[in-house]
Amino acid sequence: MILDPPFEIFLSAPPGLEPALLAEAQAQGFADAVAVPGGVTVSGGWPEVWRANLELRGAGRVLVRVASFLAFHLAQLDKRARKLPWTDLLPPGTSVKVEATSRGSKIYHGGAAAERIAAAIEAALGPAASAAEPVRMLARIEDNRVTLSLDTSGEPLHKRGHKEAVGKAPLRETLAALFLHEAGYRGREPVVDPMCGSGTFVIEA
After folding, report:
1. Considering Cα of 51, then 56, then 61, then 64, what sign does the dihedral take?
2. Which of 4, 34, 89, 90 would bridge with 94, disulfide CB 3.0–4.6 Å?
3. Which pLDDT belongs to residue 164?
4. Rounded to whole angstroms, how far apart are CA atoms 61 and 38?
5. Residues with Cβ < 8 Å from 45, sequence gap 6 or more?
6. Is the Cβ–Cβ distance between 120 and 28 less than 8 Å?
7. How do beta strands 31-36 and 39-44 pair?
8. What are the tens digits of pLDDT across the range 38-85?
9. In 12-73, which ranges are continuous DSSP H helix?
10. pTM of the full predicted structure?
11. Strand residue runs (E) in the chain
12. Confidence (pLDDT) at 162
């Protein structure tokens, strides 16, 4: 299998708020929680992935680490991506959108890297069988190391779905939840927000 549990799960957080998300993940019982730049890593299986999406109020996205390998040029990236057992992870005919970024690496063109990975996945899964919303596969290339992650969240998790009429720049719900935690709120204290705008703080409280 491409992913035998326990595998690494990445919970994204705004810069500087990783400790707050770490505290939430630990309080919710996620194993091996560690703060890293940009988020928190935990270990688990698919039940933990679904639970993270449903229960963690501070995570912006939940990513599953699929693979990590070195690649110094596009041909090597293509070869190693084609060796991965994609059919163990995704059903045949799944529509996959690949997004790639590169930093400090021999492979410097994110678009070209994304094309190679997408071609490798399509070669394994076959053409997309429907026009359904594609699954997002994220590729980060840093210091010549390629890290592939499956986005399990779809819509950003700050979109709770309960607010429709808001101002032009409302505070994200995930940020509000983490700010409340950093302010010492634990669900028992009264919250007063006289400049509440669209009510994000009081709703998250």
Report:
1. negative
2. 90
3. 65
4. 11
5. 5, 6, 7
6. no
7. antiparallel
8. 999 999 999 999 999 999 999 999 999 999 999 999 999 999 999 999
9. 18-27, 46-55
10. 0.87
11. 7-12, 31-36, 39-44, 62-70, 96-103, 135-142, 145-151
12. 65
> How far apart are the C-alpha atoms of 163 and 37, rounded to whole Å?
30
Query: Which pLDDT score, from 0 to 100, does residue 168 have?
Result: 63
Identify the residue whose tokens are 């549990």: 5
The domain 7-151 is placed in CATH, from the list 2.40.40.20, 1.10.3880.10, 1.10.10.10, 3.30.2130.30, at 3.30.2130.30
The parts of the chain modelled with pLDDT lower than 70 are 1-2, 131, 160-169, 195
In the numeric block, which tokens belong to residue 137?
């596969």
Burial class (CB in 10 A: 0-12, 13-18, 19+), 75: exposed
